[in-house]
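Page 42, continued from yesterday. The earlier attempt failed because a stray header line got pasted into the input along with the sequence. Redoing it now with the clean sequence only.
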Amino acid sequence: MINLELLVTVFARAVFGLFAAIALSTVIWSFFWVSFSPSPEELASFFLLQTLVVGIPAGLAVIFAWWNTQSPQRIQVMFIALALFASVISAWGTNELRGVETHYALANGVLRVPVFSVRHMLASMLFGAVLGGNLVAGVFFLYRSLKYREN
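This time it went through. C-alpha cells are written below.
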C-alpha cells in the first residue's frame, strides 16, 4: 500500500534527481567541450563519447538522489550498475531515435559540407539520460519500498 510519506519521498527524490542530473551533466559536458574540443571526424565514436560524457554524470546524480541505505550491499551494487546503464543507454537511444539536425555549410566557398547542431544533440542526450535514469531508479526504489519496506 502506498502511503503519503512514500509519495512525498518519491516526489522529493524525483525532483532532486532531475535537477541534479541536469546540472551535473551540463557542467561536466561543458568542461569537457571547452577543455578537449572534440572533433566530429568519425561520427560514431563522437556520438559514443558524447553519450558517455552526458550519461555517466547523469547516472551518478541519479544514484545520489535515489540511494537507499537500507538495502543490502549486493542490491546497492546492482542499483549502481542499473542506474548508470539506464542513463547511458537512454542518452544514446534518445539521440538515435530523435536524430541530429544537420545543415549544410559552404567550405572555401564551393564545397557543401554537413554541419550538425551540437545544441540539438546535447538536448536530446540530456533529456534521455535524465529521464531514463530517474525513471529506472524510481521504479527500483518503489519496488524495494513496497515489497521489502525499505525507504
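Notes: The beta strands are 102-107, 111-116.
Reminder to self: strip header lines before submitting.
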